[in-house]
Amino acid sequence: VSTKIVQDEEIVGIIGHLCSSAHLAALPNYVRKGVAAVSPTATNPTISDKNKDRDGKAWSFRVVYRDDFQGAFLAEYAKNVLGLERVAVFYQNDDYGIGLKDAFVEKAKEIGLELVGEEAYVRGTTTDFNPQLTALKEANPQALFISGYYNEGALIASQAAQLGMDVVKLGGEGLDNPDYITLGGEAAENTYITAPFLEESASPAAKEFLEKFKARYERASDYMSVNSYDAIAIIAQAIKEAGADRAAIRDYLASLNSPEKGFDGISGLTYFDENGDCQKPAFVKVVKDGAMVAAEQM
């Protein structure tokens, strides 16, 4: 769709893309045609490497942290906070799953967290994860790191429980969705999830947003909804301040480059480095008694 988007001169900015693979596929068109894109959720590190034009200007911005930060953070949390020693890895074989997995594995090896097995799956091609889980179970892990999205993540947790894998589950922000619990049921319990946003630490404005979201959509919000709201708000502010001009919008976004100049949104303070990456902390949630609640923070 990016080819069609950039040809429409009335489009002066883009919200998206949701997934890293889609964002990476579309990004060359946005850079070549000079249209700024603000992604709420694309976390793959290689986006930063492919994001600049010949003049060194970044055209992609994101209001979420990168997987190399998140994966390393989760590995340290597993060892230093949860006291885990042996972890099995089950990852989604795409840009998101691999990027997050690689960062986790690299940090785990650095800090002495033993990786006892590694298996992959292709999103959307199967609902039977028993062959891979059986292999991982034989390695006797204390925890299962699910590097993927909540849909398959819930099935993996459920099937692991059916196989008798009574282990801690670990995951990145891809599991941060109420449907992970809805689909996974009791098997979702004891899952620790890194997330860019934590309701317990939210500002009054953010809590008001969460209440309005739940009233309108009859479901709890998640970080994707919060970040999407902020991505839209940042583009709207750029248009208001710089005008409906592609280059001017890019320049305005690039000017949000320090805490003093940052955008104070629902997800917190957002400002960008020279690659369009934001600087934000990671929080940890745990599934307990059928709900995602704040876990012990690192």
Please describe what this structure looks like.
- The mean pLDDT is 95.
- The chain starts with a helix and ends with a strand.
- The chain is α/β, with parallel strands linked by helices and 298 residues long.
- Strand 2 (36-39), helix 3 and strand 3 (60-62) form a beta-alpha-beta unit.
- The protein is globular and about 60 Å long.
- 43% of the residues lie in helices and 18% in strands.
Q: How would the global form be characterised?
A: globular
Rg is 19 Å
Number of helices: 11
The side-by-side strand order for the widest beta sheet comes to 5-4-6-7-8-11-12
Low-confidence spans: none
Helix fraction, binned, reads: 40-55%
**How would you characterize the largest beta sheet?**
7 strands, mixed
Strand content bin: 15-25%
Oligomer: single chain
Distance between the termini: 41 Å
Give the averaged pLDDT, no decimals. 95
Strand-and-helix sequence, N→C? HEHEHEHEHEHEHEHEHHHEEEE
Number of distinct beta strands: 12
* Structural classification: alpha/beta
